[in-house]
Amino acid sequence: MSRPLLYLSYKQDMALLNTPAKRWWTLVLGLVAVALPFLLTDDLLVVLATACVASIGAIGLNIVTGYGGQVSLGHAFFLGLGAYTAAALSGDPDSTRLIGFGITSLPVWLLAAGLVAGLAGLIVAPLAARLRGLYLAVVTLGLVFIGEHIFKHWRELTGGVGVGRPAAVPELFGFQFAVDGELFTKAQKLYLLMLVLLVIFGVLARNLVRSRTGRALAAVRDRDLAAEVIGVDVTRYKMIAFAVSSFYAGVAGALLYVMIGFVEPGSFNLGMSVQYIAMVLIGGVATISGSVLGALFITLLPRVTRELPAVLPFISGSSAAGGITVFQVETILYGLLIIGFLIFEPRGLFGIWIRVRTYWKSWPFSH
Amino acid sequence: MSTVETSVRTATIASRVRDRARTTPHVIALREKDLGIWQQVSWEQYWDTAELAAHALIALGVEPGDRVAIHSENRREWLYTDVGTVAVRAATVGLYPTNPVAEVGYLLRHSGAKVLIAEDQEQVDKALAIEDLPDLKHIVYVDPRGIRHRYADPRLIAWTDFLAIGTGHRAADSDAVTRRMEESRPDDVVTLIYTSGTTGPPKGVMLTATNVDFAIQELVERGGFTAPPPSPRDSVLSYLPLCHVAERIFSGWFGAGAGVTVHFAESIETVATNLHEVQPTILFGVPRIWEKIAAGVQIRVESADPLKRMVNGYWLRRADWIGGVLAANGGRHTAASRAVYAIGWLFCYRALKDRIGLRKVRYAASGAAPIAPEVLRFFMGLGLPMHEVYGMTENTAVATANRPGRVKVGTVGEPHPGVELRIDESTGEILTRHPGTFAGYWQDPDATAKVIDADGWLHTGDVGEWADGTHVRITDRMKDIIITAGGKNVAPSEIENALKASPYIKEAIVIGDRRRFLTALIGIEPDTVGHWAQTHRLPYSTYGDLSAKPEVIALVQTVVDDVNARFATVEQVRSFRLLPKLLDHEDGELTATQKVKRSAVCTAFAGLVESMYAGGAR
Asked: Which bin fits B214, alpha (ψ -120 to 50), beta or left (φ > 0)?
């Protein structure tokens, strides 16, 4: 007879799917996610694939900001590092204009992108270990500006402003993802690839945060002094948080432009960092599934606002038509959503989900 | 089947545990929560530790017929000691963890226990505070916190050292325990169970190996309570004191006799949580526990948000109806009630039972004190197979039980097959006769002679009558029957239980012996009345303050009026007073089993009682 709450070992207590309900819902969710490519049009699948990649990046930011409590505005810099490492590695070696090594194997450039970004994170981390709050935010902001400058002017790597360069080529043991095949279209293949990668990196992150490291990070976040007193090596764990977070950013950066196939050096700016912070805040601070929800939400938002002109005539599709444009609406919505979530639902979308779950879980009582 | 071949002449709980260890060594026997994880003990480990305890007891000089006292909450060591003690042909004496020093002194001195197993510093302190204990040679403490390295009394031994003594003894003489067990005789006293003593000092009931064996055969192996009989697939939660015969049956003997897995609750406060985790299949409770769960459900549903309140309030009212149908049909569904229950199960009952930890319960029983039929019906309506059972320590708790499918609410059921039961024609007293009748009160032959007559009939002290010729209905304890000044016989427990069925009332003591009319002392339930006060924006500080509020008195008055409407005029409570404090074992107002000591309460609150009879007839 099943008694899900009768924990006979710590392993069982800490299991990811420790109740039958969780197991069933995860199965259903998995089946739906796998079935989607056959139900949706390709343009939507591309958006979803981008959301999967953004999720990986958001998980990375959540590890350092949500779990570790270290505010980082420099996420765009690490995303950029990853994107260019991957692009350069898989780039055409015969090109005269751009650096390229011709290594198109996905695991290789993906890992390399992560490692380069992670290494950069590790270099920055000692700064982070000394700083807190606003000061750390300003320092990481500096990173974005340095990065933006380098990306714009290192033409051999990035192709320069307004020109750019082709993104990494996704190929696994000779199998090409970025071209239409006989059975699957390009969008379907890419979506499934990104989905699998998201699951892998999501589970890895979930395992990290429920381990000793995760608990140490949370202790540092809640009060670094108290954490140090109970024996947590604060500097060490802050560095781990930065390194892991940057690794995730690197991986996400490498994949982010695979769908479009093109990287523009101007995109790794403060706006991108803010977008990721918005994902974390709206999704739910210090939750992995929240990061995914937030990334989905932010990535799908433009897609939804683009439908607005059809419904609300005073919103126009382009700036030429006058009035308020969808792009302005989008920006306003960002702001409103962040403010709204911070005030009304600080735990984000995940908090709403928890509230709904608790409501039904506590049936027939209130708590 | 769950019967185990017994290899010694007399089957004792020790031989039964040993046989289980041989036939099913790796099946789980016990589980106890430690640092958030339920630690498991297999039958092999269970017997191994119990045997070590037995060796240690021999090494400490425990001879056949000696007494070993256990003063502890329910935990593994309790059963290890119990089984080990029986193996060396000594008798176990259980002390209630709540026993105050004076009572501990009385029990240790009266039983003449040679070894005391004390749970922790609190219980060790109690034993050490008693001067004059000539027989007590050793005190074994289970939890060393606060004791080790700080206490110098030469009698103290840590549990681990106690087991080490056992290991040493086993290495030197590995057959010592086996030899002892082979010598065991049917008339060996295996346990002294001290009765709660609502009137005088506690009396030690001597139960022999035969008594216990009879009880196990009758109640466990032949399925005197449950149908089908308990098996290793069943599990129970051990939370009532093991010194009481009921819990000894449900967690000690159900385990040894049928291989039921025993889970120890962390404490009485965590029973709700532990029930939720363990989801036992067999659950025994005293009326107080059932009343508390029922009150908790009602209050928590009422305080839920509007949607939940509406839906579940509706299904609780339907449950009332289902309970009524079931009660009228001996516990069996009609087609209509089954259909209603099936829908309600989806919306409410399944989740509700899961939350309160009763979802897997296939057999629930109430005993040890009379329970209000409303409470039984409430649980039956929720789909809990609820049975009122009856027995007492003196007959090893073997007397009557409501059998699944033949339930008559308001009765204590039918006599078990191996039980002779009759009702005395002149006094109405219930008499029982069977091999489970106890051997006598420890060192008190006079008291023994009063309850066992020449023909071997046990006088239970309960007044009862036959209902439909098959079931027994109990009116009250003989000595509690009130004869009013008008000469009417009134059974107070019936009125008290009707009052206690209200979620707001915890204790009710009906008074009226040789008085003109009935009155009652009522103790409110602090949780529910406190919640009621909060929702009615009624500020209060203490229990006493809350009880003194006119609004609370008015609230209780409505309950009393409701109950009065159901009784004849002479049985109506004309006046009541609220008790200014919670009744307490420590203050001598309750027994260790939380039964009210009527006379003590009436003496302690004599002023309140007299105030109700002052000022002329109403």
From this structure: alpha
Residues B410, B444: contact at Cβ < 8 Å? Answer: no
From the list B592, B544, B493, the residue with the least C-alpha distance to B95 is B592
Please report whether residue A240 resides in a domain.
yes
Helix H or strand E encompassing B377: helix B373-381
Q: Report yes or no: B358 at the A interface, CB cutoff 8 Å.
A: no
State whether A366 and B308 contact (CB < 8 Å). Answer: yes
Domain membership of residue A249 (yes or no) is yes
Q: Are B232 and B262 in contact (CB under 8 A)?
A: no
Q: Classify residue B348 by its DSSP letter.
A: I
What is the per-residue pLDDT across B357-378, written as a single tens digit (0 to 9) for each? 999 999 999 998 889 999 999 9
Tens of pLDDT along A302-346? 888 888 888 887 777 776 666 788 888 888 888 898 899 989 998
List, in sequence order, the alpha helices (H) in B118-208: 121-128, 159-172, 176-183
- Nearest residue on chain A to B345, alpha-carbon basis: A364
Provide, as residue numbers in chain B, all residues whose Cβ is less than 8 Å from the Cβ of A362.
355
CB atoms within 10 A of CB B293: 21
Q: Which of A1, A8, A363 sits opposite B360 (nearest CB)?
A: A1
A193 in any annotated domain: yes
A-chain residues within 8 Å CB-CB of B281? 1
Q: What is the pLDDT of residue B364?
A: 96
Six-digit token pair at B581?
Answer: 């404090």
Domains and CATH numbers, chain B: 13-184+223-277 (3.40.50.12780), 481-613 (3.30.300.30)
Q: Alpha-carbon torsion B22, B23, B26, B29, what sign?
A: negative
CA of A281 vs chain B CAs: smallest distance (Å): 29
Minimal C-alpha gap between B357 and chain A (Å): 10
Task: Identify the residue with better confidence: A108 or B198.
Answer: A108
Average pLDDT, chain B: 92
Closest among B155, B613, B225 to B401, alpha carbons compared = B225
With CB atoms and an 8 Å threshold, state whether A364 touches B348.
Answer: yes
Smallest CA–CA distance, residue A364 to chain B, in Å, is 6
Q: What residues pair up with B420 in beta bridges, in sequence order?
A: B433
Q: Which of chain A's residues have a Cβ under 8 Å away from the Cβ of B40? A: 8
Distance CA B64, CA B184 (A): 9
What is the domain count for chain A? 1
DSSP-derived secondary structure letter, B387: E
What gap in Å lies between CA A88 and CA A168, rounded to an integer? 8
Tokens 């003591």, residue located: B509
Cβ under 8 Å to B: A residues 10-39 = 10, 13
Kindly give the pairing relationship between strand B156-158 and strand B138-141: parallel
Q: Is B603 on the interface with A (CB under 8 A)?
A: no
The per-residue pLDDT for range B442-467, each reduced to its tens digit, is 999 999 999 999 999 999 999 999 99
The end-to-end CA distance of chain B, in Å, is: 63
Query: What is the ipTM metric for this complex?
Result: 0.79
Whether residue A243 is contained in a domain is answered as yes
pLDDT at B87: 96
Domain extent at residue A235: 39-268
Using a CB–CB cutoff of 8 Å, tell me whether B152 touches chain A. Answer: no
Contacts of A23 (CB under 8 A, 6+ apart): A17
Of A5, A7, A364, the CB nearest to B301: A364
- Select from A305, A309, A304, A334 the least CA-distant residue to A320: A309
**Residue labelled with tokens 């176990």:** B92
Q: Reduce the DSSP state of residue B71 to 3 states and report it.
A: strand
List the 359-378 stretch of B: residues with Cβ below 8 A of A: 360
What pLDDT, on the 0 to 100 scale, is given for residue B3?
A: 43
What's the confidence (pLDDT) of residue B5?
Answer: 44
- Please give the residue of chain A at the shortest CA–CA distance from B307: A364
State whether A365 and B36 contact (CB < 8 Å).
no
